[in-house]
Write the structure tokens for this entry.
Amino acid sequence: SDAFYASDCGRRGLGTRYIELLLRRNGWNTYPTQTWYEDFIKGEFKCPLGKTIVDFCDEPEFSKVSIYLLGREYLDEKDKVIDIAGNFMPKTFCIRDGEWVGGAPPSDDVVGDAPWFIKVADMNLGGDAIDIVKKPSEIMPFVNKNQRYVVQQHVLDPLLTDDGHKAHVKFYVLLICEEDGVTWNLYTYKASLLSISPNPWSAEDLSQDTQITIHRHHIPPSETNGWKQHWQTIYKKCQEGTVKVIENAIASGKLRGRSRKQFEVFSVDWMPDCHGNIWMFEFNMSPAVWARNKEFDGVR
């Protein structure tokens, strides 16, 4: 049969957007849903009518193709990324149960002037899950014993825009694992997004607008005046760095194949410095998307 069926069960993430696009194609049809179960805290969960496995569904258990990677938590949770990021990630310190794990940061008198970021390990809420302090001795009052954290000092000598604003790259990728569970293909988005602070950068200014670049620039990096001259070189470095980190995740068994095809679109936060290095901070497993540029590079 040439008929295909997609079922939107209302899961958070990009599933609804994928289904909208599939239904624009010839032969794709909507498959109805029903209540699957109810959770006292999270509410109602849905599934395709009759708990049928359909061609595409945002609830992976009922989809012939999964939109979530097996092992994605090793990308999504900041303290789990450390092992696969290697030297691409700045020196990172971890806190669990209100205590340092594997050692605390150096003392205040030897760390320099760059600020420190305290990030909740299993949340990605932009600036809402990040606190900023001047010195390591100021970190612990921000710690909740019931949460896990990663702590990093600001990258030294960040590459700024020509007018002195901090910027980082949200590097978009599509990662696919075939039905055999061992064939992986990675595609990188040529346009990407540039996030630029509205304020000139200063190590002394601890405001979120200055230090946490969550303001997505509406112009691609390759067209952004005051920064576009860096893009060709930085794109290649981000691509190579992302490939290496994903290779580490697969080789270490963190990302694993299924008995069916799986894929996920996500972004990687990279920050370049003035010395030609790029530094990775985190993956964003539910990135903002829009259909402006469809150019992808394939990396096998």
